[in-house]
Amino acid sequence: MHCPFCRHTDSRVIDSRTTEDGSAIRRRRQCPSCERRFTTLESASLSVMKRSGVTEPFSRAKVLVGVRKACQGRPVTEDQLALLAQRVEETIRALGTAEIDAHEVGMAVLPPLRELDEVAYLRFASVYQSFDSLADFEAAIALLRAEQAAGAESP
User: Fold this and answer.
1) Dihedral of CA 48/52/53/57: which sign?
2) Are 37 and 30 in contact (CB under 8 A)?
3) Is the pTM of this model over 0.85?
4) What SS3 state is found at 101?
5) Does the N-terminal or the C-terminal CB of the chain have fewer CB atoms within 10 Å?
6) Within 10 Å of residue 63's Cβ, how many Cβ atoms?
């Protein structure tokens, strides 16, 4: 790690801590040459493989854009959307792989979106589960109703 002050090619780690959300490590470093201290943030890179074969870094912002479209006109706040995007990223990182298929990112959005808003869930699911007909929507709605009824029966 180069010192940002004197450009010395080495530094010593004084302290390491994980960030609040656990997605990165904050390291306090000291340069042996100029003795100044600085902080670095280290995070594991996560790549998304798109259908075209192109690989790009995972973007929580892209998850937000897609979910925001599904939630358009629904009573969902920006804070709820940000929390959902964070949950999706945590789910994907928990898989422990450095590269994930874009379709898997979309599928990881479904469970938290379903908890947040069922209409937005159906909108999003129609794309990521490739609904082809009204029967696909009807089957998804029937499943939601059955699970809702089962949840109402449980104490």
Assistant:
1) negative
2) yes
3) no
4) strand
5) C
6) 23
Region of 22 please: left (phi>0), alpha (psi -120 to 50) or beta.
left
Q: Which amino acid is at 90?
A: E
Closest CA to 76 of 111, 120, 108, 106: 120
The dihedral sign for the CA sequence 29, 32, 33, 35: positive
The structure tokens listed for 84 are 């959902």
